[in-house]
């Protein structure tokens, strides 16, 4: 990995000079440029920066965010940006290597919140990843944005950073934050109300489970087939049987899948128990079509409110 990054950096530097000259000559867009890695960061940046920045998304729509590796062109975009707004964590280990070598204005979403360590729950199929030698410290769950409360903290940190980078825009950034934070608060209230009026507390994910921050925020319990960042894996018969037992025991009406799932495991569980299959958006990534249609974090999370109502009924 280290070698790959160094090579990409070398390539990026070779390309950097002409690319830089180009930008200066054009010089028409004087706005800040914010380069983001994941969809939630992209959406938050659009909301808080408004008209004062051009915002771009590195991980292509529909792509598997966990195995994303930046190209030389991506590296140039990051180097030329006014702000690199990324998620951090295991899946973005390349960011750490990039920043070790260069000074780049960066805001890391994982650093904006109280990070939770990854959790392996009863019944969850452990994924035997390659153990990296000399790896230190706890592994944090990366999916911080799945709690609307965290989303607000992230947006507040982003607003502060933008005000520092572009003091002329301070009033606008703060106004954008106030407006968006109010929407996030409404979303948060909708989730709290849904949980309070629900008749159960347990969610079943026949899938990966990238929404730990969400369940922690609202005091929900869960069972899931795989941890949040697991590679797509065939579930074992034992995992499927465990989840089927839980659905039966607690008479759970809904099993969840996440975006880009093949949903096979959920289908098996539904067939066996008669429960329903619903989508819970982790908002990790969206499809090209959704992106074109201007899908937002608030929209996807709003759909989650509706799905959650049914799952807790
Ligand atoms: Zn993930």
Strand content: 5-15%
The name of the CATH topology of the largest domain is: Rossmann fold
User: From the coordinates shown, what is the CATH architecture of the largest domain?
Assistant: 3-Layer(aba) Sandwich
Helix content: 40-55%
Compute the separation of the termini in Å.
Answer: 47 Å
CATH class of the largest domain: Alpha Beta
State the shape: globular
Please characterize this protein's 3D structure.
The protein has 313 residues and is α/β, with parallel strands linked by helices. The chain folds into 2 domains: 2-124 and 136-186, Nitrogenase molybdenum iron protein domain (Rossmann fold); 190-311, 3-Layer(aba) Sandwich (Rossmann fold), CATH 3.40.50. 48% of the residues lie in helices and 13% in strands. The strands form 3 sheets. It has a 4-stranded parallel sheet with strand order 2-1-3-4, with helices on both faces. Strands 5-6 form a two-stranded parallel sheet. Strands 7-8 form a two-stranded parallel sheet. The longest helix is centred in the middle third of the chain and has 28 residues, at 170-197. The structure holds zinc ion. Zinc ion (ZN) is lined by residues 66, 91, 142-143, 210, 228-229, 284.
A few lines on this structure:
By secondary structure, the chain is of the alpha/beta class.
């Amino acid at each position: 990995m280290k070698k790959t990054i160094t090579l990409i950096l070398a390539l990026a530097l070779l390309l950097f000079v002409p690319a830089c000259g180009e930008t200066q000559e054009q010089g028409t867009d004087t706005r800040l440029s914010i380069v983001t890695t994941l969809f939630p960061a992209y959406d938050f940046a659009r909301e808080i920066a408004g008209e004062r920045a051009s915002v771009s998304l590195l991980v292509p729509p529909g792509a598997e965010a966990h195995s994303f590796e930046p190209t030389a062109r991506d590296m140039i975009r990051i180097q030329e940006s006014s702000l690199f707004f990324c998620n951090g964590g295991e899946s973005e280990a390349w960011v750490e290597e990039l920043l070790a070598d260069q000074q780049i204005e960066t805001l890391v979403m994982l650093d904006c919140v109280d990070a939770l360590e990854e959790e392996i729950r009863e019944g969850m199929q452990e994924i035997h990843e390659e153990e990296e030698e000399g790896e230190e410290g706890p592994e944090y769950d990366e999916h911080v944005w799945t709690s609307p409360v965290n989303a607000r903290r992230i947006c507040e940190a982003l607003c502060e950073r933008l005000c520092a980078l572009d003091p002329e825009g301070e009033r606008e950034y703060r106004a954008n934050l106030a407006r968006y934070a109010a929407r996030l608060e409404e979303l948060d209230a909708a989730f709290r109300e849904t949980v309070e009026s629900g008749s159960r507390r347990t969610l079943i994910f026949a899938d990966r489970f990238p929404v730990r921050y969400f369940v922690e925020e609202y005091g929900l319990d869960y069972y899931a087939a795989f941890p949040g960042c697991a590679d797509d894996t065939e579930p074992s018969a034992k995992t499927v049987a465990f989840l089927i037992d839980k659905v039966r025991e607690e008479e759970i009406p809904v099993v969840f899948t996440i975006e880009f799932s093949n949903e096979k495991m959920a289908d098996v569980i539904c067939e066996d128990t008669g429960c329903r299959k619903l989508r819970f958006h982790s908002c990790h990534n969206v499809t090209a079509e959704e992106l074109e249609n201007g899908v937002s974090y608030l929209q996807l999370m709003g759909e989650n409110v509706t799905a959650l109502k049914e799952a807790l009924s």
